[in-house]
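ping. complex inputs:
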Amino acid sequence: MPEFLETTVDKFIFKVATDRYYSSEGIWAQAEGNRVRIGLTDFLQQRSGDVAFAEVKPAGTALAAGDEVAVIETIKVNISLTSPVSGRVAEVNPAMETAPEIINKDPYGEGWLALLEASDWEADRARLLNAQAYFNLMKGQAEEEAKKL
Amino acid sequence: MTKQNKVVIVPCSGIGKTYGTVSREAAYEVTDDVRPDDTQLVALSLLVLGDEAARAAVADSPAITIDGCKLACATKMVNQSGGTVAQDFAVLDVYRRYRQFKPQGIAELNDGGQKLAHVLAEEITAVVDGLRLGPTAESAENKAAGGQNA
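pong. complex structure:
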């Protein structure tokens, strides 16, 4: 079970898992040996709304960091999600096909998107944010969003 | 059929949300057009306020709830008001089955939204019919069997 940094903005509680890295757009990346698991942050899933469909690039797809790795359709928006790492899609979470709402229920766990064979994790990791840095960024984004409510 | 025996339909009251509008359009289609004699609409806001007539309606009749999002306010409020949810519908689940009907718009739904509301109304109607026909069918069976409850 990961530990979390947590903040409350307006009536919303946002969590950031401390055991992984983040892109500024809200995609997390967690190394597992030579592979990197990716998914949406709690903030991104809450801001996006209930997920209706998730289409992840199939296994075997080669990606550069910043390439589109998935598209999710929620009750609010369609979002293109970019890969935080370079490499090849090794595995797609089968739940994305059958029960994509798992992204909303468990964004840091069962709601992962894909497992990638990273081509240069060390270089990618250096470009990503650690949990505290993402937490600070996310908190600012959440507070900006709250002002619009 | 008395009003109290009618199946209660409680849609989402989310204002400014497309899925809430779909839930209400589906509810209107069932209660106003398709099964007006078998159903009655109860406003979620009245349940929230604790309105006596609304609470009595859900307490005395089976309810069908239509939720616009995962908060499931309609279902929760019927349960908290002492009612029995015979069937709960989530607009998102229906949309997953009819992806070709992408709903958009709030005050006025687009064509996809109207079609989604229609197929949802059809599903609700089937449940209403099941609830209405269930006891009748049972009575008929009892009658045929010489039962005491016919």
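Residues 11 and 33 of chain A are 38 Å apart (CA to CA).
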